[in-house]
Amino acid sequence: MDESYVADVTRLHQEMLEATQTQDPRIAYFCMEFGIAGFLKLYSGGLGILAGDHLKASSDLNLPLCAVGLAYHDGYFHQIIDREGRQEALGDSNDFESPPFEPVMAGQYAPLRVTVPLPTGPVQVRAWKLQVGRVPLYLLDTNVPENRPEDRSITNRLYGGDSVHRLRQEMILGLGGYQLLA
What we know:
It is built from four helices and eight strands, in the order αβαβββββββαα. The strands form two sheets. Strands 1, 2, 5, 6, 7 and 8 form a six-stranded mixed beta sheet that branches. A two-stranded antiparallel sheet has the order 3-4. It has helices at residues 3-19, 46-60, 149-152, 163-181, and strands at residues 27-30, 65-70, 74-81, 87-93, 102-103, 113-118, 121-132, 135-141. It is α/β, with parallel strands linked by helices. Strand 7 (121-132) and strand 8 form a beta hairpin. The chain has one domain (25-181): Glycogen Phosphorylase B (Rossmann fold), CATH 3.40.50.2000.
């Protein structure tokens, strides 16, 4: 056995462990969808599964990562056939008021809010936190009473609506996520 090689590998391994022991995330992963678990309706397909796997692997490796996505209230829908043979869509929803979600707080009693400037006017955004192992996932939510109905619906559904709606979602994610983490 080459003792100098073993010593080098041991030293490098220790340096990597020390480098990942920080408490403050230095890497922010922004994505429109996250496939964390089947019961969380925050993803649609491959991109979400990949993003969820990134978070899980980063947790396993204890990397200094946090993630930012959108809080989709309306998840998928599933279809049933009624007695008359007609197809019926039944919606699933995410309940952000219940575990495993927790509100991001600005103080002891006040939920954190950020304001995102959109071309149609400012939009208030709150955030929910979902812990994925060691990695915090922050989910931005426009469904707050201060917003107009059309702004409250920005985060209702993954990829729901037209290209303007999608752009509004992307602006909430990018600008709101930046403000949240700043």
